[in-house]
């Protein structure tokens, strides 16, 4: 494993930790702060704490479904091509 792999892995881990900390603060800890607190200025409205992950989930599942469908279609075409070559 090269140094670039370790750096990339560390950067991805750091990014995930930052996103996790930000989202946890936004969705779980923010309601415990006073509405007049300055910390509320650093976060979007709380309704987006549900909408954003739901959107990401829908897009991710759709992308996986599209990939699986594309793979199945390609496999069926390849099998049909092989069957035509055998009968010809």
TrEMBL record:
Protein name as annotated: Dolichol phosphate-mannose biosynthesis regulatory protein
Membrane topology recorded in Swiss-Prot or TrEMBL: Multi-pass membrane protein
GO molecular function per UniProt: enzyme regulator activity
Pathway connected to this protein: Protein modification; protein glycosylation
Keywords for the protein's UniProt record, in alphabetical order: Endoplasmic reticulum, Membrane, Transmembrane, Transmembrane helix
Annotated localization: Endoplasmic reticulum membrane
Chief location category: endoplasmic reticulum
Subunit structure: Component of the dolichol-phosphate mannose (DPM) synthase complex.
Family that this chain belongs to: Belongs to the DPM2 family.
Pfam families found in the cross-reference section: DPM2
GO cellular component, one term: dolichol-phosphate-mannose synthase complex
Keyword match Transmembrane: yes
Naturally occurring in which organism (per UniProt): Mycena alexandri
Function of the protein: Regulatory subunit of the dolichol-phosphate mannose (DPM) synthase complex; essential for the ER localization.
Entry's transmembrane regions: 7-32, 52-73
Source organism, top-level taxon: Eukaryota
Xref: InterPro entries: DPM2 (IPR009914)
GO biological process: dolichol phosphate mannose biosynthetic process; GPI anchor biosynthetic process
């Amino acid at each position: 494993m090269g140094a670039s792999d370790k750096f990339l892995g560390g950067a991805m881990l750091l990014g995930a930790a930052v996103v996790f900390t930000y989202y946890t603060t936004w969705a779980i800890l923010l309601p415990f702060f006073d509405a007049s607190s300055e910390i509320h200025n650093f976060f979007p409205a709380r309704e987006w704490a549900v909408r954003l992950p739901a959107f990401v989930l829908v897009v991710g599942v759709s992308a996986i479904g599209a990939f699986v469908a594309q793979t199945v279609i390609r496999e069926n075409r390849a099998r049909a091509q092989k069957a035509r070559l055998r009968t010809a």
